[in-house]
Amino acid sequence: MKLVIGPDVAMWLAEQRAKIPARHTLLAPTLLRSQVLAWCYRDVQTGRVTRKEADARLNYLRALKIRLLGDRVLQQTAWSFAQELGWADTFMAEYLGLTKLQAEALVTRDEEVAEAAKRLALVVVPPEALLE
């Protein structure tokens, strides 16, 4: 099953060092790399985790098979979705756009993003679905 994951789910997986069954193909926009790096940096700066733990999470994510995409069509779709949803930027709209273009569902822990995806008639599944 092709599933789009956002930074919230990527970090959730990294915290657990979760094993993803081979039947799942993970997809994300290329911006995921910068978002998880910033997330880990922020967690270290606020004392939530040590630098060693942040590095371990980043290494887990680097080893995780995630197909990163970011072509012109995705950018145009993200722009349209952000505009339709009245969002101030296109960051999360890229995840929604990728779901529409290439995946069967979006995996998110963010209720606001899940609601936006449903407004766009996209399928949303909980993160636990990745472990099944």
Description:
The protein is α/β, with parallel strands linked by helices. It is 55% helix and 14% strand. A five-stranded parallel β-sheet has the order 3-2-1-4-5. It is globular. The model has no long low-confidence stretch (mean pLDDT 98).
The amount of helix comes to 40-55%
How many helical elements? 6
The N- to C-terminal Cα distance equals 11 Å
Strand runs, count = 5
The profile of the biggest β sheet is: 5 strands, parallel
Strand order across the biggest sheet?
3-2-1-4-5
Write out key terms for the chains shown.
five-stranded parallel beta sheet; single chain
Write the layout of secondary structure elements.
Blueprint: E1 2-5, H1 7-16, E2 25-29, H2 32-45, H3 51-63, E3 66-69, H4 72-85, H5 91-102, E4 105-107, H6 111-119, E5 124-125
Parallel strand pairs: 1-2, 1-4, 2-3, 4-5
Helix pairs in contact: 1-3, 2-3, 4-5
